[in-house]
Model the fold of this input.
Amino acid sequence: MKKVAIVSCYFQKNYGSQLQAYATQRILDILKVENETICIDGLKSEINKRKYRFFIKMIFDRDTVKEKSKSVKKALLKKVNKKIGNNARKRDNYFEEFSRNFFRLSDRYDSFEELTKACNEKYSDVIVGSDQLWLPSNIYADYYTLNFVPDNVNKISYATSFGAAVIPKWQRESVKRFLERFQHLSVREQKGRELIKELTGLDAKIACDPTLLFGADEWLEIQDEKPFIDGKYIFCYFLGNNQLHRRFANELKEKTGYKIVALQHLDEYVKADENFGDIKPYNVGPSEFVNLIRNAEYVCTDSFHGSVFSSIYNKRFFTFMRFKADSTMSTNSRITSLLSILGLEDRLLTGEENAENYMNREINFEDVNKRLENFRKESLEYLKEALNIN
Done:
């Protein structure tokens, strides 16, 4: 019997990570393909050791150090500040509940050798994706590369993202080697396709993020039909700390009279956010996150998946660049690629704009939905072909 293993970051307490991991599992269920997500519990220690060695290697890269220091600072604050720690635990509990309710995990593997043996004995195919699984630190950790999968097992990349626009020179040869072992390659953005072509000469497919494989009604399966927040509101989902983005949202609030619902201190602790937003809920897991976008009047975000679900739910939304263009840690390309495919380039702002000039700018959602449906069909065909499904 054909059984597919999914290699994803289902365990990350991040809305996009868990929702795309769930969507990957869900689409295989719909295709009637037996599948399970590889349980990472026994492998985390080794993977984290490798990541630690990567960050030591990159200690003189300013952007890498800057980004890593944010998560370290947040971890320390959670320990010393009772309020921050309690709020973080409250949110984490919702992620853990979502994971328990929606993920079907494999047996625990305590070494890569055990996992390789399981691939030989249990799995006909191994799928990696989606999300930023091919970031330089993840490549160094050597899990999402599928190097542990034997040659005779079908290896599929589904909409996997490099995240970064540049691969370090010292890493390029190892990237070339692992990519050439895949039988089927697809990525989430144009830049990833260009990187693969440059490194290997192979033509990768651009596939939609797994979350985009499902329409608005299908996402009701994981959320309450009732709005999580009553009344009209602007939903703000900012992962970065750019205050211009908050200023735009506040200006939008002044012009509309709608309250701001903001999720705080996600990827990092943002001190200024203590005074930003009218409603700041922490009892928000992936299901509630989708509900908040579905029922918002406007969405302001610097997130890829914030843009994804705004598009799915045909929301008036504004996406802001989180990284500087020349940052080695920049993940902007996945957002620009998505908006380009959907014809939504004009939703990308800097934060310096006047909200009054943009708040009534129409979106041709009839065109967006047609583009999205075509993208969805093409991506599904790629997946079915990769799995040899009629």
Notes: The first helix runs from residue 15 to 30. Confidence is low (pLDDT under 50) at residues 326-330.
